[in-house]
């Protein structure tokens, strides 16, 4: 069966396509395309060109208009003449099977959308049997409604309408037969994967029950905000951390001791805008650590221009997985990378978020969160002692409430 995404990182060139719509202005579209370029780079592709178009909504047939599609086609042909072949075109939204089929027929190159690109990265990052099973299930869910385009060569062979005219004699049926066969194979495989995930869930539930009387703390946040780096600092471990999206895919749980208090700290997969619903569904078992946590540490990259929207994305995703409403500490990371635009003294226009200094931003959020937030740099180890103090106090409060008769297991000791 034909693969629908690349299965390993290759240095292919890619063109990105996004829309400026009524609900997504030019600045936001640029930000989304920057993130899409980062996703492409993580998957092993090199972005060589970006195309945008203003439309009220996406074209239901070709996503962009005919003129823009022709412009992309011309660019690909010109690059090919210069021996700079474009390997793929990546669209910033999930494409319908109809859009995918039409665009592919017009451009004659590999077409990916945001969903298939994220799925490809997840497949590349998955290490454990649990993660691999969840990714495979999500891939099949994505593939199922798009099976028809994998057999368009049989449709072209058939010609005609299937009524016995137009040269389809002897060629009616194979496409449909193969389609149904593939559909049955995939549905059977999905049932098997779901059963396997149920078994893994049972095992993980047993593991969680056996972890003893300790408070569970989960690091959550947008992808690439520094959760794994914070995990390494608090747990003195070596969790894989990299400046790429979805560097962490499998949930990691470590025992942490601050002063005399032990607790469990988990590092979870990062969230992202437009995260495919199927992927959220498939990864619910991985995110059980979030649902069962007593305290969430929401890590935010304050140096990112769209950090407030990223906070909203994380909160919405937490609501989707039934992980909202828990005690939470908001940690603004990467303060060492924060920049702002200083307004000229003669500029009388209102100040925007981009004009706020770090100190002003800190005061704004501390007032909003009633001091329930911290500003740190995990990489430069700025305010890490303050972070440990706050986490200790919050975990201690929860420990006393949950296990009132359980003394702390360790004597206070001085760390070297």
Notes on the structure:
- With 416 residues, this protein is an alpha/beta fold.
- It folds into three domains: 12-125, Rossmann fold, CATH 3.40.50; 127-157 and 172-210; 213-402, Rossmann fold, CATH 3.40.50.
- The protein has 13 helices and ten strands.
- Helix 1 (26-43) packs parallel to helix 4 and helix 5 (129-143) packs antiparallel against helix 7 (174-209).
- The longest helix has 36 residues, at 174-209.
- The protein is globular.
- Monomer. Associates with the 50S ribosomal subunit.
- GTP binds at residues 221-228, 246-250, 267-270, 333-336, 377-379.
- It is found in: Cytoplasm.
- Mg(2+) binds at residues 228, 248.
């Amino acid at each position: 069966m034909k693969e629908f995404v690349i299965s390993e990182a290759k240095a292919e060139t890619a063109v990105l396509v996004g829309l400026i719509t009524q609900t997504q202005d030019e600045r936001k579209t640029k930000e989304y395309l920057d993130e899409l370029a980062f996703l492409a780079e993580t998957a092993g592709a090199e972005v060589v060109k970006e195309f945008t178009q203003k439309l009220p909504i996406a074209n239901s047939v070709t996503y962009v208009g005919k003129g823009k599609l022709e412009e992309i086609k011309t660019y690909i042909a010109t690059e090919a003449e210069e021996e700079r072949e474009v390997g793929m075109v990546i669209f910033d939204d999930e494409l319908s099977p109809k859009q995918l089929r039409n665009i592919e027929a017009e451009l004659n190159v590999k077409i990916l959308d945001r969903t298939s690109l994220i799925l490809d990265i997840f497949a590349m990052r998955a290490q454990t049997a649990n993660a691999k099973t969840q990714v495979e299930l999500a891939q099949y869910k994505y593939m199922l409604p798009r099976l028809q385009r994998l057999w368009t060569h049989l449709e072209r062979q058939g010609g005609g309408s299937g009524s016995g005219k137009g040269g389809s004699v002897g060629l009616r049926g194979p496409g449909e037969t193969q389609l149904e066969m593939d559909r049955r194979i995939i549905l059977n495989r999905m049932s098997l994967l779901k059963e396997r995930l149920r078994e893994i869930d049972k095992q993980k539930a047993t593991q969680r029950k056996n972890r003893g009387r300790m408070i569970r703390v989960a690091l959550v946040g947008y992808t690439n905000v520094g959760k794994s780096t914070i995990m390494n600092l608090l747990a003195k471990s070596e969790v894989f951390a990299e400046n790429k999206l979805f560097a962490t895919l499998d949930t990691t749980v470590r025992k942490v001791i601050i002063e005399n208090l032990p607790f469990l700290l988990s590092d979870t997969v990062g969230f992202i805008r437009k995260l495919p619903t199927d992927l959220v569904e498939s990864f619910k078992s991985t995110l059980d650590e979030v649902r069962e946590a007593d305290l969430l540490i929401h890590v935010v990259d304050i140096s990112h221009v769209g950090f407030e929207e990223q906070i909203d994305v994380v909160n919405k995703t937490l609501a989707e997985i039934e992980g909202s409403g828990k005690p939470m500490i908001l940690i603004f990371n990467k303060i060492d990378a924060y920049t702002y635009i200083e307004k000229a003294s003669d500029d009388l226009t209102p100040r925007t978020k981009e004009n706020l200094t770090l100190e002003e931003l800190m005061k704004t959020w501390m007032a909003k969160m009633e001091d329930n937030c911290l500003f740190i740099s995990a990489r430069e180890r700025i305010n890490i002692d303050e972070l440990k103090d706050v986490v200790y106090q919050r975990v201690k409060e929860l420990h006393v409430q949950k296990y009132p008769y359980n003394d702390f297991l360790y004597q206070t000791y001085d760390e070297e």
